[in-house]
Amino acid sequence: MLNRVRSAVAHLVSSGGAPPPRPKSPDLPNATSALPAAPPEKPRSPPARSRGGSAAPAKTVEARASFSRPTFLQLSPGGLRRADDHAGRAVQSPPDTGRRLPWSTGYAEVINAGKSRHNEDQACCEVVYVEGRRSVSGAPREPSRGQGLCFYYWGLFDGHAGGGAAEMASRLLHRHIREQLKDLSCWSSQKEVTHESLVVGAIENAFQLMDEQMARERRGHQVEGGCCALVVVYLLGKVYVANAGDSRAIIVRNGEIIPMSREFTPETERQRLQLLGFLKPELLGGEFTHLEFPRRVQPKELGQRMLYRDQNMTGWAYKKIELEDLRFPLVCGEGKKARVMATIGVTRGLGDHNLKVCSSTLPIKPFLSCFPEVRVYDLTQYEHCPDDVLVLGTDGLWDVTSDCEVATTVDKVLSAYEPNDPSRYTALAQALVLGARGTPRDRGWRLPNNKLGSGDDISVFVIPLGGPGSYS
Amino acid sequence: MLNRVRSAVAHLVSSGGAPPPRPKSPDLPNATSALPAAPPEKPRSPPARSRGGSAAPAKTVEARASFSRPTFLQLSPGGLRRADDHAGRAVQSPPDTGRRLPWSTGYAEVINAGKSRHNEDQACCEVVYVEGRRSVSGAPREPSRGQGLCFYYWGLFDGHAGGGAAEMASRLLHRHIREQLKDLSCWSSQKEVTHESLVVGAIENAFQLMDEQMARERRGHQVEGGCCALVVVYLLGKVYVANAGDSRAIIVRNGEIIPMSREFTPETERQRLQLLGFLKPELLGGEFTHLEFPRRVQPKELGQRMLYRDQNMTGWAYKKIELEDLRFPLVCGEGKKARVMATIGVTRGLGDHNLKVCSSTLPIKPFLSCFPEVRVYDLTQYEHCPDDVLVLGTDGLWDVTSDCEVATTVDKVLSAYEPNDPSRYTALAQALVLGARGTPRDRGWRLPNNKLGSGDDISVFVIPLGGPGSYS
């Protein structure tokens, strides 16, 4: 994902100069040690509540090592070094022991080919227990386990311009969701609002609160860069897939592909970005125009007619070129090279509060949205078999692998294992990561068809849908 | 549509008092007499060009009678009185003569049951000739018929708070589209832009220019109220359906329903409206909150937690009620009763430049968008039969008639006529209008199932798709 932020690192530290060493969260009293891997059978007990009001989640930020991988990988110091090796690019998966991820979820990852010092992807997989809130109307809250509920949680976080935001999100976002879901127990009194829309709202709010926490803590704790976030919540028969960024989730069901997310890039979000630039021209700092042109307008074209698109338009029309149109376009470039303000290629995610336009003090954050799009899949509406899976991947996978190719690999790998073999989903995740990475050949990583493999960090979850928990 | 604007008429005249009698456009030199019905075989010759630059269409505003109907109805003074009779509500169609609308298009309309003095719907059906522009780069334009092209055009305009905007749009919008399409001849030099996207852009721009013209001329010419606009353009094998408002277009093809538009209401556009209120709080005048609550918040609930939705959210979450949340919600009500700023129930369309919030000077126009959504249907991708039709209707039809009921009527009526009988589409339009109006019974207009018929103005176009022009 580093390529997505052009020269942005230089602007990350508003105080200027090299980033200071990361402090051990001295001002956060609730700091805990590293989270253990989630026990699949036993839900996590909730940590101590914060005193900061009902909306604030537990503010637990732990001391960060200079490089960390998901705790469920259970990497030894030696394993950590191998995972950090750009030359070997060894595929990492949780150890094949009796203690598996919930639902026997498969996971695999590989570091980039040298784009950034460390793997800036992060992942999280947890079973989270939510205590009920007694009342919404200010009555005292009394902890009571009987009112609670559990959700299953998977998160992929693709960092850019540093690994801090992805790491923080992987440790805390599910806690924000847990805090928001505490209100679910009060639902019955609001008949016009569906249970599903409350879960969706809880996830949406949690993303915003996570982003706000990053903004608050960025100075003290050096939350570097930003990250895309792709999150799955399973609760009461429904799968909620929340996406903010350019990771992707698809369900492969009986060979059929069901898209569960869409990517948010300068191209797909052109109209939202242009609208913001149009309504708040001060955000463009006199340097950019919110209008789009098929190519950069030249000064000699002043007064001539040229094609353009405004925020309300899906088609192209002509306008007479004015002085303002000579400014750099807010959205420019195509495909993977599309950029907002010539800087960033992804338009939703967490963090990036310090990100500035190259060679400028203009902040980019106002154009980035932390809000996810949430899609809901009712697991009870279909009788899933053990070969039906939800595949989550960062753009390292999808840059070189189509949905159809993933579906083919799903079929090929899973059919080679017994349906009740719990290791088949990790084997599938590994096959997907390997298929996107390729093998070293001709001074690069190459796929079997000799095209370039992905040099990006690659992370994949494979979540079996054939009966939650039945394979764990 | 009058119900959609609550007490808005009182606010229409910014000078206060009763509206003055409509002037005969004394300051527009190009004023012409009433447009004749379009000759179906022979394209209209273009009127004289204006001198106001290439983007300005011919500014022909004619003297308006106090009540007018589409010229293609060819109503005599007596016929005009019958069309204006709220008690009889006679269905109006073009006379069954040899001179039909293009493609043997069917049309029928009926006045409302007393909601407004006159029928505030308007309609237009034309064959429009577009002269080519020689160059986009400032070279002199030389009229040359050889460079031109023709498009077929149908428009339905559902006025509210007066008939002026609908009438003006029905007479001028296609001319704005024609002016925009003149640039099409320069297309080949811009390979990255498709022909289709240029037509879409031309239509989008034309809507905006029409709206701007209404704003400019509202003082001198009393452009009353606003209107929804549903427009169809047929050009070079493709049907473009542009919708701004709550009219609807569907294709019924071999019994299958293909939606060709969606409605723009405070409910469907909630997030756009909220975003605008959030980014430009001054537009809310301290009277409204951009947040949505399931019900009106009471002062006694201050400090308590309540469900809400913000502009980025599709789900509901909880927040602590603050003083600002006690303001009236920007979007309130449900279904047909949903309103923006407690005033208007439709969020896209033309005009409404004088519309104010009830008992306030707060303008509503910034929340209304004049931009249409344009859907494209490739007529060449399917072999259409004479029973395949595109049905356009104002909300008077759709308020009491489902898409499926329309499809049933299409089948029933068309199968009663020979496939080559050109009067079958008018018969179908009449049947649809009659089916929505009902018959007078029990002190109201009732449908066969005894439910209330539509008391609104009802207008319907039926456009046959089975070979453009083959039935004319």
UniProtKB/TrEMBL annotation, chains A, B:
GO cellular component: mitochondrion
Domain PPM-type phosphatase: 104-465
One Pfam entry name: PP2C
SMART domains (UniProt xref): PP2Cc (SM00332)
Gene Ontology MF: a single term: [pyruvate dehydrogenase (acetyl-transferring)]-phosphatase activity
Segments for region (Disordered): 1-103
PANTHER family linked to this entry: PROTEIN PHOSPHATASE 1J, PROTEIN PHOSPHATASE 2C
Entry protein name: Protein phosphatase, Mg2+/Mn2+ dependent 1J
Gene source species: Equus asinus (Donkey)
Lineage of the organism: Eukaryota, Metazoa, Chordata, Craniata, Vertebrata
